[in-house]
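ok so i was messing around last nite and threw this chain in just to see what happens. nothing serious, just curious
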Amino acid sequence: MPRKWVVLVAALLVTALSATTWALGATGGTGTSSKSSNPQARLKADPPDAAFLPGDIRPDAPELAARGPYGVGVRTLHVTNPNQVDILRYSATNTDPRYDRPLTLEVWYPAEIKGKQKEELATYSDVLGSGPNDPARPNVPFEFQGRALRNAKPDDSGAAYPLIIVSHGYPGSRVLLTNLTENLASKGYVVVAIDHTESTHGDKAAFSSTLLNRPLDILFVLDQMAELGEPKSHSFLSKVVDANRTALVGYSMGGYGVLTAAGAGITAATVGWGAPGGKLAVLQAGTPEYEALLDKRIKAIVAFAPCCATFGIWDADGLKGLKVPSLFVVGDQDQTAPFAGVKYLFGNTVNSDRYMLVYQNGDHEVPVNPAPQITYSRWREYVHYQEPAWDNTRTNNVNQHFLTAFLGIHLNGKSYDDYLDLKYVYSNESNDYGKPPSEIWKGFKIWSAVGMEMHHLEP
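result:
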């Protein structure tokens, strides 16, 4: 009998025996079930699961997806970047408009959480919509919960933790990826997500602001977090965050932001069309102004579905400037940041040790939280969250797994290489019934490594 049928028959026998045992125990028979025969007693002893929240793991979650050993605290900060170019007010008669640019940050960190505090949940606020003036997508406030404790005391019992800066899409918000931010904080990172002014669900404005400000916001927040981590800062992050070990994580236009902040300067042509008055010149590859922006504290980047290679924002020469390790994550059916563009980025960042995780039949939303219930009656908002062919909880778990490995290697020196350097590029090949479990993608349960690819190119 072929191996596939042996496995299938064995599985069916186990299922049948389990069902028989449960039935005997439940009806007061002679089965060996440890459950009480009283339905009420069973319910009391084995209560229903708590509400499933963004970031929770499914039974088929790969090994490294599980939360780490730390409790998670969360706080909201407000910072201001002074004297920035106000590109939205540029005109022929006002060629250098300036403003103090406000940014709201959400910060997750390892925390001391004891007793009943462990049961408390954080409440996050966001809005639906695509800016303030879109009648087809009006702003609708909503809230959702997460597994973190608001204003908890940081766990400062050990060395300072590496820093991860998260940049959302256009439009997006600082709480769009709480499935990932909470998870990483539980594993010993300080994670800060930015509400990029003029680019959120509530205040989305002209694209030129996003092109100019994404990398500048990221680099400013890196400086701010470094200052808060200083022993003399008297901040809750004093001696808690180590900004000298920083990774950048960006989604969509956030992917553009982290690539540009980390060394991939834009083309002269992009400077010409991207913003009035040539204000994007500060981001042009090869210029002294751009080189002066680059920060050696950045050790790695993760780009989820990064925009916008198909716009011609980068060329091969500019992409050579990315020298830190990188992980690209993309769906091969992405309609917003087309897969061809991400493949171009992956192929031409030739000085980066880089990986590319591909979700077969995945679209643009592979990193975001599952769609909140408020979107179920609002189709355009629902698809802003929900993958059409994948379950977002599944992609969240897979992302948690691979980012734990990738960031663990490059920020903490952990030996996670086997989780990334996989024997088979295509997960389906590793998951063949004819192969032993040791052949499956490392960390994945049997029958669960399906529909993915992992590519690796060295510098």
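not much to say yet. Confidence is low (pLDDT under 50) at residues 1-49.
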